[in-house]
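Good morning,

Attaching, inline, the backbone tokens for the sequence recovery test we're adding to the shared suite. The designed sequence is right after.
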């Protein structure tokens, strides 16, 4: 029988500080994603603008590398890898405006990069999928924020 989240929460509340620290460290050692997420929560969660700037820098670096690549197959693999990174940080931030900002920036950089993504149907589908995701994110934001992001969205369509 697997314990539910409520059971885990109840048990964690009963543990002393040292045991809780030991459990967190063992969880961080178990999987790279757990360690990255714990690092985000401890060091970066309070500064979302710095997180956005860091992810934008990663996007810029990866797009610059992909511009040198002549083979569309490797460009597609690189873009998918980059999207996994973007999605991971969007999930960490758990903020739809951060997610919309990062996805819009990804599409802007791809469009401005000169990479001929329009020559490959899978890359076109990837780009269109990003546009759908951005629309969904923007529609779920507050009306004041929607207008700001719609302007960015119009620039990449």
């Amino acid at each position: 029988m697997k314990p539910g989240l409520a059971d885990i929460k109840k048990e964690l509340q009963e543990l002393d500080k040292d045991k809780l620290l030991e459990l967190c460290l063992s969880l961080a050692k178990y999987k790279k994603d757990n360690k990255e997420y714990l690092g985000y929560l401890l060091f970066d969660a309070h500064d979302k603008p710095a997180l956005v700037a860091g992810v934008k820098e990663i996007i810029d670096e990866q797009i610059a590398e992909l511009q040198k690549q002549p083979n569309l197959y490797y460009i597609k693999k690189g873009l998918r890898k980059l999207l996994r990174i973007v999605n991971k940080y969007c999930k960490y931030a758990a903020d739809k405006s951060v997610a919309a900002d990062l996805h819009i920036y990804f599409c802007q950089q791809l469009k401005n990069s000169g990479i001929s993504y329009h020559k490959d149907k899978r890359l076109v589908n990837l780009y269109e999928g990003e546009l759908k995701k951005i629309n969904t994110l923007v529609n779920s934001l507050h009306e004041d924020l929607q207008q700001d992001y719609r302007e960015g969205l119009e620039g990449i369509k």
